[in-house]
Amino acid sequence: MRIDIISIFPEYFAPLDVSLIGKARERGTLDVRLHQLRDWANDVHRTVDDTPYGGGPGMVMKPEPWGAAIDSLLADGSPRMVVPTPSGRPFTQELAQELAAEEWLLFCCGRYEGIDSRVMAEYGSRLRVDEVSIGDYVLAGGEVAVLVMAEAIGRLLPGVLGNACSVVDDSFAPGAMQNLLEGPVFTKPPVWRSHEVPPVLMSGNHGKVARWRRDEALRRTLSVRPELLASLDPATLDKHDRRLLDELSFRVGSEDVAN
Ligand code: J9T
Question: What's the 107 CA to ligand 1 centre distance in angstroms?
Fold first, then answer.
């Protein structure tokens, strides 16, 4: 996969040199190319922003440097363009999987109050363009959001993760424990500062372990993300799940019981 990133702070992306993503780049699985937006500014001060039409605080990124920067890349073909912004569609594991299947991604990092909307309109008629938010909070710029997305996408590329199973087992990967958060995990020693590992995990009884893990996933999800439980397809809950949720006073939506 090729990933191009246009930013006024390309040095923000130093973390992409290390860890799994860094190794994928060394192997050639991932080809990351950083671009300085100011290289396409047309004045001596390399200006990339200006005051907003209609008034208001802050500055807006001018369209011309963006147009020149993006046009220079389109000589190579048609990437899928992603613009991080708090007003975008949510970045989810599903979108990460969709983007991981693309051959070429272009991330455009806005600073200040955002990029002049005509840039997204212009390229939206030629490329697939998504404005994407990584959560309901505001950042100083899109750079950190791109790091988040690049890591979520990069680890899904074939051969990037050591263990292919760790991808399917993710809390949000469609399939595994669908829409449930993962419960607690433990490793050796069996007792640490008088905290014991739950004995069931050392019992060797795989059925009991699986049931315990599912119970813990249900408890945790109810405790910290109750809206995920509420959105769960009731047909995916078996009678054990229902008994546990009943004990925890959670009302399951439908009466259709699986198993
Ligand atoms: C400037 O960009 C942001 O503040 C941003 C980008 C993506 N997601 C967010 N939640 C914020």
Answer: 13
